[in-house]
Specification:
single chain, alpha+beta, Chloramphenicol Acetyltransferase, six-stranded mixed sheet, 29% helix, 20% strand, globular
């Protein structure tokens, strides 16, 4: 096996770079990559003050070295190889941190790049960081290739960079959630996870975007929903219910076929400190809803739905399950060339598309790190994430909370929705999120 070699001291023999086989999630994602819909995750951090370019480059570069698993690129190989492999490098292959020209459209243009231009997998690391002056402060916009990394892992690296830049402790404020040792029983009456779910109804794609390739996105800031002290449901359950009611309303407005909804929810149990494994570390849980549960509810119905949702999500999150299910492990078994497995995986994905969940809700929750860049740049006052929204789902909802505010990102396939549709969905989501705060007397 050939390998790019590490630089060696004079007179010594060069050492080959370490190679790591793609994990299951990375391989499945790699099989299904499409240039028309880049598989990117966008993270947007708003700081109240300016940053120094040289210090930021130095801090982020050192943070990459302190989390060496991020310094990887896809290793070349013949078509008949049985695995994709990551090649771990000693440092970045090029400049990772850039400083676009400031201007009224600089942040908008950076968001567009995040949705349309994935960092190449052939260069380490598959991440880029853009620092954009904005209203006296700075927007740090990270784009990562989801084949290699997820949002929480990259946020961990950024927290290390903040600590190195500002000299202040950026340790996580709370430990990760602890799941029960014994899985809870899924309650009777929970809708079947095998039923064919309703799709997000077709909106009005923008003609300006031609063939409808790629993603659109809208970000918004909302109040964190009130939750009574001691309530048996969480803010995550309120977000789940608001998402389900929003899509049910949207589909009714557009005369779509009625049916159950199924919402995919990433669950992350990794530690948040410096030992956090870097890569794609979340597992996916699918939460089902009956069509009848989502008819236009009154306050009593909403509270009952919150209670049922809390019981479901708690039980489903406690189940022990591979990240993408047992079938994915079979698809990635290295018994035939990886190119053959890729063709099979893409074919099965197309065949199974009618059973793909309706949407994905990724709730990062309260940002676990201060993201404090010191006295001048300051502490993050807003953080947005967005997850890929390729068809057949065509829509993802991502939330995080910072400084007591909820930061919502809606991201959609331009083949399904347009910008006006995104604004309508935002308004519906805000309405139904507020409805989860209403309680019967």
């Amino acid at each position: 096996m050939t390998a790019v070699e590490r630089p060696a001291h004079p007179g010594s023999r060069p050492r080959p770079l370490e190679r790591v086989p793609f994990p299951v999630v990375d391989e499945i994602t790699r099989h299904c990559v499409r240039d028309e819909e880049p598989e990117t995750v966008h993270i947007e951090v708003w700081l109240p003050g300016p940053v120094d370019p040289d210090r930021l480059r130095k801090a982020f570069g050192e943070a990459l070295r302190r989390h060496p698993r991020i310094l990887m690129r896809e290793a070349p190989g013949p078509w008949y190889r049985r695995r994709y492999e990551w090649e771990l490098t000693d440092g970045p292959d090029g400049e990772v941190v850039t400083f676009p020209e400031p201007g009224p459209d600089a942040v908008r243009d950076a968001r567009t790049r995040a949705l349309t231009q994935a960092p190449p997998l052939t260069l380490a690391p598959p991440v880029r960081l853009e620092a954009i002056p904005e209203a006296g402060g700075t927007v740090l916009l990270l784009t990562l290739d989801h084949t290699a990394l997820d949002g929480p892992a990259c946020l961990r690296v950024l927290a290390t960079a903040a600590e190195l830049y500002g000299g202040r402790d950026n340790s996580p404020a709370a430990p990760p959630p602890v799941r029960p040792a014994e899985p809870a029983r899924v309650p009777a009456g929970t809708p079947s996870p095998w039923s064919r779910p309703a799709r997000v109804a077709q909106g009005t794609p923008d003609p300006a975007h031609g063939n409808g390739n790629g993603n659109g996105m809208l970000v918004a800031e909302l109040p964190v929903p009130h939750r009574p002290k001691g309530a048996p449901y969480t803010v995550n359950d309120q977000l789940m219910v608001a998402t389900a009611l929003t899509l049910a309303h949207w589909n009714r407005e557009h005369g779509a076929r009625s049916g159950p909804l199924r919402i995919t929810m990433p669950v992350d149990d990794r530690p948040r400190d410096h030992t956090m494994p870097i890569g794609n570390g979340t597992r996916l849980v699918e939460v089902p809803f009956q069509h009848a549960e989502l008819a236009e509810p009154d306050a009593t119905d909403t509270v009952a739905l919150l209670h049922r949702t809390a019981t479901r999500t708690r039980a489903l999150k406690s189940l022990s399950r591979p990240q993408l299910g047992h079938g994915a492990s079979l698809l990635t078994a290295p018994v035939v060339p990886v190119a053959w497995r890729a063709a099979v995986t893409r074919g099965l994905r197309r065949a199974a598309s009618p059973w793909t969940s309706t949407t994905l809700l990724s709730n990062i929750g309260r940002i676990p790190y201060p993201l404090d860049f010191g006295a001048e740049a300051g502490r993050a006052r807003a953080v947005w994430f967005s997850a890929p929204a390729r068809m057949p789902r065509g829509l993802t909802v991502t939330t995080a909370s910072t400084a007591g505010r909820l930061h919502l990102a809606l991201r959609w396939s331009r083949a399904l929705l347009g910008d006006a549709d995104g604004a309508r969905l935002r308004d519906l989501f805000a309405h139904y999120l507020h409805a989860t705060e209403v309680h019967p007397a």
